[in-house]
Each structure stands twice: as C-alpha cells, then as structure tokens.
Amino acid sequence: QVQVVESGGGLVQAGGSLRLSCAVSGTGSTFSTHAIGWFRQAPGKELLLIARVYGGGKIFYDDSVKGRFTISRDNAKNTVYLQMNSLKPQDTAVYYCHIPFGNAWGQGTQVTVSS
Questions:
Q1: Among 29, 25, 43, which Cα is nearest to 112's?
Q2: CA neighbours closer than 13 Å in the CB half-sphere of residue 28
Q3: Strand 69-74 to 79-84 pairing
Q4: Which residues, in sequence order, are CB contacts of 97 under 8 Å at separation 6+?
Q5: What is the pLDDT of residue 43?
Q6: Rounded distance, CA 21 to CA 95, Å?
Q7: pLDDT at 57 over 90
Q8: Per-residue pLDDT tens for 77-101?
C-alpha cells in the first residue's frame, strides 16, 4: 500500500520561506519512476495542482507559484520537496502531496503566511 506523509508547514511572514517534505512509502524500488505532485487548498477555494515532478525529470508549475517555488526529489530517500520562497499571504492553504500510483494522498500540512 502506497502511503504519503507531508511535513514542514507552519506560520511565516510574507517574503519568508518554508520547505515542505513528502515522504513516500510502498513503491518499492520504483519510486524514481513515479510522478508526484503538490496540491493546495485555500479556504473557500478548490484544490489546485501547483507543482509536479515526473519520473523522467519533467516539472510542471502553476503560474501562481512559478519562479517562487521549486519542486525536487531525492530518490534515495523516497522523498519529494517543495521549496517555497517569497511567500505571500495568498499562499496560505493546506498543502497536500499526491502520488497517482496508488492514488495516495497525505494528511495535509497547513501553511499560513502573515502580512
């Protein structure tokens, strides 16, 4: 069974940085081949895919985070990271990690950016 656990959220002032981690288990030796994405859901808004890294290295960013957020993966640790810089109050949301293989979602981690 594929499982995902996020960590790294918190409260930060506008302009600050946070790094989220997504630890994946249950993929065996195939972790490096799987796409993994970060979604977020702000209060009253729909779930939004903001970044995804594919097994071949291709990366997608939503326009709202392009140039500020960086997704990366450490295949030796079965972990994907989301480095978030120049945070804005509108980045406040619950952030979720998702792996389509097994359709596994994490529990979410809250990110709050104060103005």
A1: 43
A2: 4
A3: antiparallel
A4: 4, 6, 20, 22, 24, 36, 37, 38, 39, 80, 105, 106
A5: 92
A6: 10
A7: no
A8: 999 999 999 999 999 999 999 999 9
pLDDT of residue 29: 87
Torsion of the alpha carbons at 48, 46, 23 and 67, rounded to the nearest 10:
30
Distance separating alpha carbons of residues 89 and 93, to the nearest angstrom: 9
- Decide if 82 contacts 70 (C-beta within 8 A): yes
Residue carrying structure tokens 């997608």: 60
Tokens 């940085």 locate to 17
By the 10 Å C-beta count (0-12 exposed, 13-18 middle, 19+ buried), 49 is classed as middle
Q: What is the 3-state secondary structure (H, E, C) of the chain?
A: CCEEEEECCEEEECCCCEEEEEEEECCHHHHHHCCEEEEEECCCCCCEEEEEECCCCCEEECCCCCCCEEEEEECCCCEEEEEECCCCHHHCEEEEEEECCCCEECCCEEEEEEC
Q: Which amino acid is at 92?
A: T
